[in-house]
Amino acid sequence: xxxxxxxxxxxxxxxxxxxxxxxxxxLQELIDNMWETMYNAHGVGLAAPQIGKSIRLFLVDxxxxxxxxxxxxxxxxxxxxxxxxxxxPQILEETGDEWAxxxxxxxxxxxxxxxxxxxxxxxEYFDENFNKKTETYDGLAARVIQHExxxxxxxxxxxxxxxxxxxxxxxxxQKISKGEIRIDYRMRFPKLKKAR
Length: 196
Prior knowledge:
Elements: E1 5-6, H1 27-40, E2 45-47, E3 57-61, H2 73-81, E4 83-95, E5 99-105, E6 108-117, E7 120-126, E8 132-138, H3 139-152, H4 163-178, E9 187-188
């Protein structure tokens, strides 16, 4: 089932998410719905807060990036095979010199900005069968994971921008939170308090 994606301005996007118990009700159904929702919106990642659930779960399918001709065969292969759910993840380490990449977000449509992140991460998480894993990723694979991980920490990519950049996109962000945008996937907009 395709779920509406929560738009910028909803408080759930700014909350630190809670761990999921192993017996979380209908977890597999939720994960299946999240995959369907993500693909319907042409995303490469989707975190539970983006569908209104403040739990530590996100999905990543970085295969669309694997076609980039600037990548090494190894990088391309890592991206092609990076399709998984991350449950209760913890980034253990981020290393290397920060580099910029133009990021976007399904909750913040039509806004793209350069974000600086470290190139290599080590992450510990549970897979869909609650098997514990510890893996290291680098380059674009690491970046996609870092972006989604930020969501479960209550951080949006726009929070990482300079104050000047934030001022430049402020009106766009206000339009998104009011639902004054056209997009080709379902969204849920914040219920704004009416002035008295």
